[in-house]
């Protein structure tokens, strides 16, 4: 081991940068060790995993920027650390997947966290941390997650924080108990061992840093890099005009019979701080859409879009939990963003993504040229289970992340076929899918024409995937399907993107549109085709350079009809731009518009009609009428009041706040009062 360098060698701003880069190198190596040794497609291809270094207070002080899930910096590790702090020894490795016992570190049971204390001469310095999304952790359906699950007990085996290794010795009884409750035990243990490789890598590298710079300097450096990132984040926030900016959007829970669920935000910027107030957001639901944040400031599933914005404004920002310190939150208890214990959480990604959309929508009103249009809004995971007739067990695997295109940016098109706002999940190669699951044949996988919202900058295109199953008893789940009703909004006069679709047995006499998937049973020869959403466009489509429209047409991103009717670009017989005809066509389109000043957001006819029928004030009134009720009672009464309001709307009456309060009093009386 090399000798310690004098403090002065890593003091000051340059020394802080050295330590920050050293910490970054450790987590990057952790991520590569995990990635290269993982067993399942979802980890080794899609990269749904994480690696981090965590302070003794539970803050992530280093996380990868290019590998795995990119938002670990906002994961709150404090309560998980507190749960085990009475007995932490060298060689221990801890494990948990329980959202309730960790109070929001885990957010559904499929994310299994492993962490290891790093000691120096008997003193605890920090923790090495990792997680993997396990393909299956038991529960009522293969893959463990279905939107229709309504309590956490249906979603698999729960592990409160406990030791997997005790001073280097594996707890085999616990491990066997855990694995026997899952459908993919060998693969799960393989991915867990990949996590262990990452943790051991981190432990070795941190000890090398201590040997080089000394324990005291490393401990001091952990606090300093966190403080430095906070200062950088506050400088960026400080340029945003002070004020309160409001935005709302809706989770589409029609696949479980719950209709539209509002996520409501008032974002207040004051100096270098930010408050995210989610008052008016819908109560927790009897479905797997609940997001267990425990109301924690800077929670990673609330601030992903905001962190991306900070990183684009300050590309050299230190990437750690200091970034999220300025982001305070206020969330009603018992809401879908802060549910009471016992709720189902599996498909919470739908909810997190909607929060991302509303935070960007709110902030875009303050700094309109710094935020993109709405992205596809869907981060679904298409998973298949087929029987293994030789063993009597099931084979379970991810087919693809079913995501759409990214929203157009203020100065560039959106990214085609993937979303960059939330985690950037990678494609699984078709050859890999068919090798792992021979009963599945991919018939088509490519970009979807005319899906990206038209604009000066085009929204990223969605995708189409079509596959055939050749096995009986095939089960398909695709959690977190979204934006089949309301498309991703366009900005600054641009068009919204498209909505999604799911077609069973297309082109046959058995073809039918089945909408969002909960749990779908297929047989031999059945074919499923899924089309994902394109991102919203940015800026007036008539301002798009004609050559870019021509390129999009020739590349199959748009149709000739869209080129002519929306962009006003006309090609001649040689597929070159007819400049005179294009100028005439663009004048015709502009003359027929209903606006001269471009709207900031273009939501599309479906959402505009909904707002006309259900104005924001109605949602606010129902939220106010049920405020303060226990979680389960609030969700029940919220639904009953909404049904009565809906009947009034059918009769042609829009209830005012007083009328909603009267309806609420009547429903509460029938239900035994506020505390009955």
Automatic annotation (TrEMBL):
Q: Which GO terms describe its molecular function?
A: 5-oxoprolinase (ATP-hydrolyzing) activity
Q: Where is this region: Disordered?
A: 489-508
- Specify the Hydantoinase B/oxoprolinase domain's residue ranges: 16-541
Please give the Pfam families that the UniProt record associates with this protein: Hydantoinase_B (PF02538)
A Gene Ontology CC term for this entry? Answer: cytosol
Highest taxon above the source species: Bacteria
Cite the InterPro entries for this sequence: Hydantoinase_B, Oxoprolinase-like
Q: Which GO terms describe its biological process?
A: glutathione metabolic process
Q: Which PANTHER family match?
A: 5-OXOPROLINASE RELATED, HYPOTHETICAL 5-OXOPROLINASE (EUROFUNG)-RELATED
Q: What is this protein called?
A: Hydantoinase B/oxoprolinase domain-containing protein
